[in-house]
Write a structure and sequence with these properties.
With about 325 residues, the chain is mainly α. It has 13 helices and two strands; from the N terminus they run αααααααααααααββ.
Length: about 325
């Protein structure tokens, strides 16, 4: 998701209006909080119509987070991790429908492979899949995962469309999302557990394990930003595949999860689909052209380092599995 700059803000003129330049100068100078407060008042309250647009994805994200807890309570951790990769399929479909994007044939094939793998895993779960706690309901867990994937795909594409169709910065949009998400979460808490919270306090039941989950969720959100900034889709696909493997191993060790060939087949298909979908189109074309024409080997003089690899645009590409750094070559 590309970041959208704050330039070109359409803030109304008046005593309370603060431009984006004023925000930058105000936030960089020490102790100048007044400009920031005035900017937030202008961007969040005065331009309330723009703020209300973020209520939709914020509501969906809040619902999605609660659905994930319902799903993980009714499914083994490994099964949940594999099935939750359906969010790739829903995000791709919403991108095609709402953003008019086009997918390559390989991406469509990988989405079909992903669906097949998840279906195999769910068939294994419905067939027994080893002992499970009596209080788990696989049907409710599957329904929660599917609803969570649908909400995740729609909210993500809707949020991207808002970012690309307005002049607001990413941090401002995240602030607006946080405001609505906090308000909606508190309303849901009061509706479901208001009496218990009033009697026992807000932090009742916050054991070290609960705090660990909270910190893990917050740290995971920061890691996503780091991955988006410094890595690429291929590394992200590898990270997703590794998370499936680690979840399976942890489920076997901690919860006695039974790994049978059917689950291994479905998980393998999902991992392969995630990797294929993450491949950039340029890499796919390069692989296809290389396999069609055969490898071209150049003799290198002894003791000389190999020449740098050039892309079709004349860019210098660093080693694989490292953050991409594209540098223009002289004369290209």
């Amino acid at each position: 998701m590309a970041a959208v700059g704050v330039g070109g803000s359409t803030a109304a003129t008046g005593s309370g209006a603060v431009s984006a330049g004023a925000l930058e100068s105000g936030t960089t100078s020490t102790g100048n909080v007044k400009h920031l407060v005035l900017f937030l008042h202008e961007a969040v309250l005065v331009q309330y119509v723009d703020t209300l647009k973020l209520a939709v994805p914020s509501l969906i994200y809040t619902l999605q987070n609660n659905l994930q807890y319902v799903a993980i309570s009714n499914l083994p951790a490994a099964t949940f991790q594999v099935t939750y990769q359906l969010k790739i399929l829903t995000t791709a479909l919403f991108s095609v429908l709402m953003l008019n994007r086009s997918l390559s044939r390989l991406q469509w094939a990988s989405l079909l492979l992903l669906f097949t793998g998840v279906a195999i895993v769910q068939a294994q779960q419905a067939g027994g899949g080893g002992p499970r706690p009596l209080d788990q309901n696989p049907g409710a867990g599957l329904a929660a995962v599917v609803a969570s994937c649908l909400s995740s795909g729609f909210a993500g594409v809707y949020f991207e469309k808002i970012l690309k169709g307005s002049s607001g910065s990413v941090w401002l949009r995240n602030l607006q999302l946080g405001l609505f998400g906090t308000a909606l979460g508190l309303v849901g808490l009061w509706w479901a557990e208001g009496t218990a919270v009033a009697r026992r306090g807000f932090f009742f039941g916050y054991t070290p394990a609960v705090w660990g989950v909270v910190l893990n969720q917050a740290f995971g959100g920061l890691l996503v930003a780091v991955v988006v900034k410094y890595a690429d889709n291929i590394l992200k696909g590898f990270a997703t595949s590794l998370s499936i493997v680690l979840s399976t191993v942890a489920s076997i060790r901690l919860f006695g999860f039974h790994l049978d060939p059917l689950f291994a087949l479905g998980a393998g298909l999902v991992i392969g689909a995630v990797y294929l979908y993450s491949l950039p189109r340029g890499a796919v074309k390069a692989i296809a052209s290389t396999s069609a024409s055969g490898p071209c080997i150049h003799q290198q003089p002894p003791g000389q380092p190999p020449p740098p690899q050039l892309s079709s645009r004349g860019d210098l590409i660093t080693e694989p599995f490292l953050p991409k750094l594209l540098t223009k070559v002289k004369g290209s």
